[in-house]
Structures are given as C-alpha cells and as structure tokens.
C-alpha cells in the first residue's frame, strides 16, 4: 500500500504568501490499524535548496559563512550562525544554483563539485528538499571577497577554519546549523577512509 492509498485530502487553504507560502491542510490518514484519522497540519513551502562545503585537502581547511538569522535569535540564540554556503534553487538546477551561491557568499569559483546526498530538513512542517554538495578548493579559485548581496539583506562573513576546528565548533556549540553539521561529519568520515 502506498502513501497515496492511505491519504485523503479534504481541503488546503493558503494562510500566508508574504515571504514564502504557508498553507494548512485537512486530511484523513489511514493508520496502520486500518482506522481513518482526520488531521490538520500547517506546512511551509519555501522551495528546495542546495548547500555546499568547500574543503582544501592540502591545508585541511573548510570555507564557512557567519551571518545573522532572525528565527535562531527569536528562539534564544544570541549569536551569529556559522553555516555552509546555501541557497534556494529558484527554478535552477541544484549544481548551477549552489555554484552561484558559493561565488556570492564565499567569493570562490569552484572546479568539480560532487553531490553527496539529499535530505528533508524539517519534514514535519517544511516541504524543502536540500541537495548537499562538497568540492575541493584552493586559493587560486578566489574571485572576490564574498559576503552576499546587501540588497538581499545579506551581511556574510567568510570563515576558513581547519576541519578539526570546525568539528570542535560543533562539539562546543558554536556550530548549530544542521546542514553544516551533516556536511562536516560527512567530510570527516570521508577523509578517514
């Protein structure tokens, strides 16, 4: 039995289309015991995205960004967030979009990039699928300062810690962004083998 066989959608209503799209849906779900249960859920659609962690194997460094994130602050985090470069696809292919984001945010034009996986980041409320990439970099690939687009509200600082320093930042709580943690752990496991 597929999910489609276990789902009956009754109504979907638009709640907000201000920054992204917030909807509510009333549906019946057929539970494992065969009983149909009516539920209501809100879901946020901001589009799909991509994230990339550049690493320099010779120096054992990575490139990260530090920036203000209002939702993190509103949830009690009184610091700038340290993250891997990321952005929404905006109808572009994931590799095309993430290359542009890396140039805008980090100031690097990368060679080969490698997709390592896809993941839903908060599937209970957000529809987004995130495409995860890694790529090697070296100083010769730098084409600018990065920092993002001020007209889009971006005020991005570029960081270049060693992989060990970045992993320590996860352990001590300075890196709290899930996508960044996932890519740093992936890189650490990949480089061990």
UniProtKB/TrEMBL annotation:
Listed CDD domains: NUDIX_GDPMK (cd24157)
Occurrences of domain Nudix hydrolase (ranges): 45-183
Alphabetical UniProt keywords: Hydrolase
Keyword Flavoprotein: no
Top-level taxon: Bacteria
Catalytic activity: GDP-alpha-D-mannose + H2O = alpha-D-mannose 1-phosphate + GMP + 2 H(+)
Keyword set includes Oxidoreductase: no
Protein name, as recorded: GDP-mannose pyrophosphatase
Assembly notes: Homodimer.
PROSITE patterns: NUDIX (PS51462)
TM region(s), chain numbering: none
Cofactor(s) needed for function: Mg(2+)
UniProt family annotation: Belongs to the Nudix hydrolase family. NudK subfamily.
InterPro entries given in the database record: NDP_pyrophosphatase (IPR004385), NUDIX_hydrolase-like_dom_sf (IPR015797), NUDIX_hydrolase_dom (IPR000086)
